[in-house]
DNA sequence: GCCGATTATATGCGTTCGCATGTAACTAAC
DNA sequence: GTTAGTTACATGCGAACGCATATAATCGGC
């Protein structure tokens, strides 16, 4: 069923094979990311937002408490100055509100404005439908759950890794 | 074999649940992509190349025949003008060679120079090791194979999709 | 309470990007 | 052959990016 080598071969697969396996998997994953991102980018659902804009609005929409810039930075693939200016633009467009943190004068509290929340919801509905259409056409429910599980494992930081060689 | 829900359960599983499953999986996959890309970007293995530069060199290294720009464009997440100028820079740096296509005067044939090939190999070895370290620390062999298999399915174009509702 | 280290964010600057569009070559119908 | 349409790539231009660095506030010894 799987693409695993035939049972009975090298009981402790050569590290070479394991390296190869990992690199092939990563290359395939990159290909999938590119194909899907391209598809979603071309969708006509963004309403003036870039996908990065949406990423920030979506991240903010998931948090009750206002977020700081550095918190957003953990989720978005963007440099700190890049994120700073991206948020600037969203504030200027009235989609994100920034107010001073009373407990830390360095930080700013960021949150969605009503308009930002409405836009995120509108775009999110359409984008979510497109994501579902693309993924459900290619993977079964079991496979979707598996993809999520594998992705979560890949997201683990170097700490809390399941140890292997004690 | 098909993507039908487990026999006996809600004969037509709520489309809501399936949509949710797909969106959760995509969100997790994006998180994994971000975490790993950040990690790999921070690696000290690039030797003056951006990851996009490397992507182009790697793609060229896999092809015997010289490639056209539009062929590269299918693999790289970049607009056509963006790729055109990226290749310009690689040519200027002596890493990529471009020569006229005798059968089509519009197109250019791109290939690695010796220097480009050497650089790609050097960087590729180090990057490949980093990729393997990150992935094998988080996934078993079976999981790596599974990730590759799922990723390939996700990369399928809209044509040749396994049909579902005849 | 003072001072070096660290953290949170912003800004200057040169590079790179995407969009719109341009140019040139191929294709096909007549 | 002429011409309309398409394909392959390049270029002008304004927006966005990353790197280095600045600014300002907090934290930790002492």
Task: Report on this structure.
Two copies of one chain form a homodimer. The first copy, chain A, contains six helices and two strands. By secondary structure, chain A is mainly alpha-helical. Chain A has a domain at 46-153: Arc Repressor Mutant, subunit A. A two-stranded antiparallel sheet of chain A has the order 1-2. In chain A, strand 1 (96-100) and strand 2 form a beta hairpin. In chain A, helix 2 (51-62) crosses helix 5 (114-136) and helix 3 (69-75) packs across helix 4 (80-92). The mean pLDDT of chain A is 90. Chain A binds a DNA duplex (30 and 30 nucleotides) through residues 50, 68-70, 78-82, 84-86, 88-89, 104-108.
The total of beta strands of chain A comes to 2
Overall geometry of chain A comes to: globular
CATH architecture annotation name of the domain at 46-153 in chain A: Orthogonal Bundle
Order of H and E elements of chain A: HHHHEEHH
Largest sheet of chain A: 2 strands, antiparallel
The N- to C-terminal Cα distance of chain A equals: 32 Å
Helix content of chain A: 55-70%
- CATH superfamily of the domain at 46-153 in chain A, by name, is Winged helix-like DNA-binding domain superfamily/Winged helix DNA-binding domain
- Average pLDDT score of chain A: 90
**Biggest sheet: strand arrangement of chain A:** 1-2
Instruction: Report low-confidence residues of chain A grouped into runs of 5 or more.
Output: none
Summarize the entry for a quick read.
With 166 residues, chain A is mainly α.
């Amino acid at each position: 069923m799987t693409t695993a080598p035939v049972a009975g071969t090298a009981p402790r697969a050569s590290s070479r094979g394991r390296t190869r396996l990992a690199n092939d998997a990563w290359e395939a994953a990159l290909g999938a990311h590119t194909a899907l991102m391209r598809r979603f980018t071309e969708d006509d659902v963004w309403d003036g937002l870039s996908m990065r804009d949406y990423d920030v609005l979506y991240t903010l929409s998931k948090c009750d408490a206002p977020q700081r810039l550095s918190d957003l930075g953990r989720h978005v693939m963007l440099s700190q100055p890049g994120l700073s200016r991206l948020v600037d633009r969203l504030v200027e467009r009235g989609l994100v509100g920034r107010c001073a943190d009373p407990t830390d004068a360095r930080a700013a509290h960021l949150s969605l404005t009503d308009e930002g929340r409405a836009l995120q919801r509108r775009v999110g509905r359409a984008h979510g439908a497109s994501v579902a259409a693309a993924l459900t056409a290619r993977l079964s429910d079991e496979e979707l759950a598996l993809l999520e599980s594998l992705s979560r494992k890949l997201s683990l930081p170097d700490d809390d890794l399941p140890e292997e060689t004690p």
